[in-house]
Amino acid sequence: MQTDGHASGAAEGPLAAAARAGDMLRVKQLLEEREGRPHGGSDDETAAFAAAVQALHTDVADLLIRRGAVPGEVAPDRLPSLREAVGFGSPALVDALTGGSIRHRYPTSELKELRDLARTWHEAGTEAELRRRTGSSGDVAYTRVQDDEGYYKVGELTLEGVTVRDGHGAILTELEELLGIRTSCDDLVTRALERDPDHTAWGRAAIMLSHRREPEAWAVAETLRADADPRRRLFGAELTRLFELFADAHEEQYCVLAVAALTDWSAEETDPAVLATVLHGLSSYQGPRAEAALLAHLGHHDPGVRRAVAAGLGTSKDGEHLSGRAREGVLTLMNDPDTDVGIAACRSAGDIANGDPVLSDSLAALLDHPERRVRLEAVQSLALHRDERCVEAAKRLGPPRPGYREEELYCLEAAWRFERRRGDTARTTRPGMRSNVASIAPEGTAPWPRDT
User: Are residues 107 and 191 in the same domain?
Assistant: First the structure.
């Protein structure tokens, strides 16, 4: 699939030009600069979305949809046809062209034809179908690309100047859902396991199965758990984790089943990747059995497993199930040699948020850590513990970096809120005293943009 040569960057605004160039960081920076300032509604975002889609920068297009672009406001002749998108093999592009504001453009008969096209590519195999269509036996250039803004990726293949992506299985699933066709559990598992765990097909199949709160889907998870192939067990662990994650309440039937299965599974799993996923499934469940299962792997050799342990130990907000061992575990993992383990432990220390002086001192010791990410997490957690050391540390960190505003602001705003409340208390205690709380927030940034 080729780009269609629509308006060049010279005739476009900065946001659309950055989107057409596929410059994700610049797009984020421009979106951040626009926050809180009057502008033309979603018009600029929509124009940028059209430019991103025309240039096949599907991850940028996905971001712009999340930031206010309205695909339905783009004229059909300024977008690729849905047939082109299906043939190209990009699930994100198909999603963009079939979203709520644009779905009405496609009659059922067309969707059925495109489902058949997706099935043809999927069943033949992307490379084989690409060779058939180009008539070439030459070398295929292959790479992995970010298809949407999220975690999952797809493969991209180029042969004789023709480029396609290998997301046809995920597209087939999406079109079946649009048509009201129930894809069998076996087909969903097969489509997932044809790809790597970070592929879009894997994630979409797991999510769709986990939303089926029914015995057939649960039986799939149990069967995969007992499989000798660690790859199949990994998909089963992800499915079981999502059964717990998407539960409406801890008392829901499939949540109870999932927690029991994950707890038992954690004691017997030997593959580190599978074990990490199993333990992540326990991270949102507050209970002594889950805590014991996590603590059993506190010193595991694999950092991914330790990250899962660190993430899970702080989920009990009221401290009811946070034992002395769990507290010691969090303290240990805050100083783990793996940075991501330490960050997860910092977050857990903040989630506990009971003013524990030992936890606070350990967090404060990380305020001079060489990595900015660690310092940011320590600031947020100290603020949650109502420790005033977060204020000066936030000042030293300065404003969020361009392109990283959302994630960094999430940490810094906790210190800003703490300082505001401290200033409010001071004014209440000493009437007439003026708080200098605004000084902690960088110039041009609202001091507490998310305070509720």
Answer: yes
Q: Decide: residue 231, CB within 10 A, 0-12 exposed, 13-18 middle, 19+ buried.
A: middle
Residues 155 and 117 in one domain: yes
Task: Give the structural domain span for 111.
Answer: 80-210
Mean pLDDT of 441-448: 46
Q: Both tokens of residue 401?
A: 């970096």
206 is a domain residue: yes
Residue 415 region by backbone torsions, left for phi larger than 0, else alpha for psi between -120 and 50, else beta: alpha
Q: What are the distances in angstroms from CA 23 to CA 9, 15, 90, 165, 292?
A: 12, 10, 19, 20, 45
Q: Three-class SS string for 203-215?
A: HHHHHHHHCCCCH
Give the pLDDT score at 295. 95
Residue 41: exposed, middle, or buried by beta-carbon count in 10 A (0-12, 13-18, 19+)?
exposed
Q: Contact at 8 Å (CB) between 263 and 237?
A: no
Last residue of a domain, one of 179, 210, 241: 210
- Model confidence at 317: pLDDT above 80: no
Of the pLDDT bands very low, low, confident and very high (cuts 50, 70, 90), residue 99 is: confident
**Cα(52)–Cα(56) distance, rounded to whole angstroms?**
6
Entry pTM:
0.85
Q: Are residues 56 and 132 in the same domain?
A: no
* Helical pair 230-245 and 215-225, crossing angle rounded to 10 deg: 140
User: Which positions ≥6 away from 75 have C-beta within 8 Å?
Assistant: none
Residues 24 and 35: their CA atoms lie apart, in Å, by: 17
CB 141 within 8 A of CB 158: yes
Task: Report yes or no on 439 lying in a domain.
Answer: no
- Tell which of 175, 210, 245 closes a domain: 210
In whole numbers, what is the pLDDT of the chain averaged over residues? 88
Is 108 in the same domain as 168? yes
Q: Is there a single domain that holds both residue 6 and residue 85?
A: no
Report yes or no on 451 lying in a domain. no
Burial class for 445, CB neighbours closer than 10 Å (0-12, 13-18, 19+): middle
Q: What is the pLDDT of residues 390-442, one digit of tens each?
A: 999 999 999 999 888 888 988 999 999 998 887 666 555 555 444 444 445 55
pLDDT at residue 427 in the model: 56
* Distance from C-alpha of 387 to C-alpha of 258, rounded to nearest angstrom: 37
Write out pLDDT tens, residues 129-156. 999 999 999 999 999 999 988 878 999 9
Domain count within the chain: 2
d(CA 394, CA 51): 38
**DSSP code, position 299:** T
Examine the domain organization and report whether 72 and 167 are in the same domain: no
Angle ∠(191,195,199) on CA atoms, nearest 5: 105
